[in-house]
Amino acid sequence: MKLGVIGCGKMGTALIQGAIRAGVVASGDVYGCDPYYKSRENFAAVTGAHVSADIAEIASASDVLLLCTKPNDVAAALATVAEKSSGQPKLVISIAAGVTLAALESAAPENFRVIRTMPNTPALVGHGAAGYCLGSRATGADAKTAESLLGAVGLAVQVPERLMDAVTGLSGSGPAYIYMVIDALADGGVRAGIPRADAVRLAAQTVIGAASMVLETGEHPAVLKDMVTSPGGTTIAGVAALEKHGLRNALIEAVTAATLRATELGK
């Protein structure tokens, strides 16, 4: 696979670092393009890939394109790729927020297959969560390619496009909610006398541990909650306080609000 990356910012760089580390692609088969010199230089330094400021060069060298531009730049980038591809079919995987499969397919030549994805920022540290959906011409092999690239930096889940806004509201925006939870837990620790730095580390590690338990055991979160909630104990006192102040409903409403906003931005 010859992989071109259009947009060598943090997310594009993180995805390629993960793919190279996992053996999905060799650094010598990756070609990065970005108009900004510093972004290109950083991309080359951390991935060992080829870089260029010329999209045309990337288009001719690649059979898979990872499109990491801003949403407003997608159509222009695809137009340039189409012009310089000499009729060669390509797979385009777009991480541009809010850009639909229909928009991608209308901007690309008929022999291009497209996939839309929504990764999140923890991909930068190898713990991302991404949803992706297939365009009308994408194949099962294309889905495996997307899964291998996204899965190299975390979890990748295929969904129908109608759920992509919900993915944005849940895992795309979700890290911000969890940072607020960590900050609040740490504040509680500080209130109880724990030094700030220790409280933050304990809170963050607790979130990592709890999340790992869900993923690795396969148990429902409620079952795991019950495992640490002894009758008349400390945990049930804390859980009761959370229920009283509406933590569960607040998080549900956050995902719902972010999903609705993602839908508005996509129109």
Overview features:
267 residues; alpha/beta; Rossmann fold; ProC C-terminal domain-like fold; eight-stranded mixed beta sheet; 12 helices
What's the SSE blueprint?
Blueprint: E1 3-6, H1 10-21, E2 30-33, H2 37-47, E3 50-52, H3 55-61, E4 64-67, H4 74-84, E5 90-94, H5 101-107, E6 112-118, E7 128-134, H6 140-151, E8 154-158, H7 164-172, H8 174-191, H9 196-217, H10 221-227, H11 234-244, H12 247-265
Parallel strand pairs: 1-2, 1-4, 2-3, 4-5, 5-6, 7-8
Antiparallel strand pairs: 6-7
Helix pairs in contact: 1-6, 3-4, 7-12, 8-9
Protein name: Pyrroline-5-carboxylate reductase
Pathway: Amino-acid biosynthesis; L-proline biosynthesis; L-proline from L-glutamate 5-semialdehyde: step 1/1
Binding site for NADP(+): 6-11
- The number of helical segments is 12
* Terminal CA distance: 34 Å
Overall SS class: alpha/beta
Compressed to H and E, one letter per element, the order equals EHEHEHEHEHEEHEHHHHHH
Which residues form runs of ≥5 with pLDDT under 50? none
Largest sheet: 8 strands, mixed
What is the fold-level CATH name, i.e. the topology of the largest domain? Rossmann fold
| Portion in helices | 40-55%
What is the CATH C level class of the largest domain, in words?
A: Alpha Beta
Please indicate the percent range of residues in DSSP E strands (runs of 2 or more).
5-15%
**What is the arithmetic mean of pLDDT?**
94
Number of strands: 8
In the CATH classification, which architecture of the largest domain applies? 3-Layer(aba) Sandwich
Domain count, please report it. 2
